[in-house]
């Protein structure tokens, strides 16, 4: 009789494990095949049931006051996850033991949204002290920013801890640059366990937000070291960008990544790329980089917004599963800028 009970228990455990893996494909094995557990959308249901409502209320106000903030918070999540995993290392300030990632080339003078994360953290600490991690706040803020920009809704697996370290060197080396070639993009995404579908779908996050002149000037004046513009730029679009971004000066002048609908999360980004109106080199090479798979995906997502949304959600949760700190690893920071 005892052996029958044991067998029944084993079958039940196996069924539960399979069900969880089917529901959250990334929750059983992280990138690189390392197993981990502990991420689930209902992680705070009992310990801080107000978390989602608090985060959304802060974001509604912040994005109403500054529509760019939605894109900034989405970008903050990307730049966090691409450096030693989704662990809020990007929020850490310089200290005796920390060299901040905020000073890396991809982040300096451009990464934004810290004050919004701080406001969310302060409100959560009042209601549920020492419960919700800064890493999970970033993940939820990114998701809610997409929702508030008319994009898709999805459940975010939660339960990440915050890192006690940061890496300036990996922030400089692992975050794809705006002038990346298609091969560099593929290589850097693959390093994170992300494939070509993830690359194109996550690049679609550029459907909201802006970029600084310094990130696309090369395309206007000296794309291949011959003092000539990028030949793939549509002429009228190119002329307009020249007025925003002079050859010298104006580094911080901005242009929308998707001028068709700069604050709406949709598939216009892909439609513009097909017309030679992708702003960054890393946008346009998805079509012109002689990579058949990325080219086909750009065309498919330009035609089918629902399919883009579906893959974007899938890729966001996959990215959110890059090396999370769970269990006894990491900590719940009291102040997102400082190790406890």
UniProtKB/TrEMBL annotation:
Annotated InterPro entries: Haem_peroxidase, Haem_peroxidase_sf, Peroxidase_pln, Peroxidases_AS, Peroxidases_heam-ligand_BS, Secretory_peroxidase
Binding-site list for Ca(2+) 1: 80, 83, 85, 87, 89, 101
Signal peptide residue numbers: 1-23
GO biological process: hydrogen peroxide catabolic process; response to oxidative stress
Nucleotide-binding as UniProt keyword: no
Enzyme Commission code: 1.11.1.7
Residue numbers annotated as active site: 79 (proton acceptor)
Sequence ranges assigned to domain Plant heme peroxidase family profile in this UniProt record: 38-340
Molecular function in Gene Ontology: heme binding; lactoperoxidase activity; metal ion binding
CC cofactor note: Binds 2 calcium ions per subunit.
Keywords from the UniProt entry: Calcium, Disulfide bond, Glycoprotein, Heme, Hydrogen peroxide, Iron, Metal-binding, Oxidoreductase, Peroxidase, Secreted, Signal
Compartment(s) where it occurs, according to its Swiss-Prot or TrEMBL record: Secreted
Chain residues that bind Ca(2+) 2: 207, 258, 266
CDD domains membership: secretory_peroxidase
Record-listed substrate binding positions: 176
Catalytic activity: 2 a phenolic donor + H2O2 = 2 a phenolic radical donor + 2 H2O
GO cellular-component term (any): extracellular region
Cysteine pairings via disulfide bonds: 48-128, 81-86, 134-336, 213-245
Cofactors (names): Ca(2+); heme b
Stated role: Removal of H(2)O(2), oxidation of toxic reductants, biosynthesis and degradation of lignin, suberization, auxin catabolism, response to environmental stresses such as wounding, pathogen attack and oxidative stress.
Similarity section: Belongs to the peroxidase family. Classical plant (class III) peroxidase subfamily. Belongs to the peroxidase family. Ascorbate peroxidase subfamily.
UniProt protein name: Peroxidase
């Amino acid at each position: 009789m005892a052996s029958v009970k044991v067998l029944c228990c084993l079958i039940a455990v196996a069924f539960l494990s399979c069900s969880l893996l089917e529901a959250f494909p990334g929750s059983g094995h992280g990138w690189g095949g390392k197993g981990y557990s502990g991420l689930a959308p209902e992680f705070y249901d009992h310990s801080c049931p107000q978390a989602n409502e608090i985060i959304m209320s802060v974001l509604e106000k912040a994005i109403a006051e500054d529509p760019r903030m939605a894109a900034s918070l989405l970008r903050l999540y990307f730049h966090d996850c691409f450096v030693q995993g989704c662990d809020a290392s990007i929020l850490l300030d310089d200290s005796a033991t920390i060299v901040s990632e905020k000073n890396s080339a991809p982040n300096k003078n451009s990464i934004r949204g810290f004050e919004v994360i701080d406001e969310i953290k302060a409100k959560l600490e009042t209601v549920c002290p020492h419960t919700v991690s800064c890493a999970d706040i970033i993940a939820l803020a990114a998701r809610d920013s997409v929702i508030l920009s008319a994009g898709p809704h999805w459940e975010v697996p939660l339960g990440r801890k915050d890192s006690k370290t940061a890496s300036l060197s990996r922030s400089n080396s692992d975050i794809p640059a705006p002038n990346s070639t298609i091969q560099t993009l593929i290589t850097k995404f693959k390093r994170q366990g992300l494939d070509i579908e993830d690359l194109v779908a996550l690049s679609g996050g550029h459907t909201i937000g802006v970029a600084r002149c310094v990130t696309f000037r090369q395309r206007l004046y000296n794309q291949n070291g011959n003092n000539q513009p990028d030949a793939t730029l549509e002429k009228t679009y190119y002329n307009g960008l020249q007025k925003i971004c002079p050859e010298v000066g104006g580094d911080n002048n901005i242009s929308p990544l998707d001028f068709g609908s700069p604050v709406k999360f949709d598939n216009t980004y892909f439609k513009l790329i097909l017309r030679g109106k992708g702003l960054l080199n890393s946008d346009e090479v998805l079509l012109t980089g002689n990579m058949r798979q990325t080219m086909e995906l750009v065309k498919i997502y330009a035609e089918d917004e629902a399919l883009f949304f579906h893959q974007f959600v899938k890729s966001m949760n996959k990215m959110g599963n890059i090396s999370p700190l769970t269990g006894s690893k990491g900590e719940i920071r009291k102040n997102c800028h400082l190790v406890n």
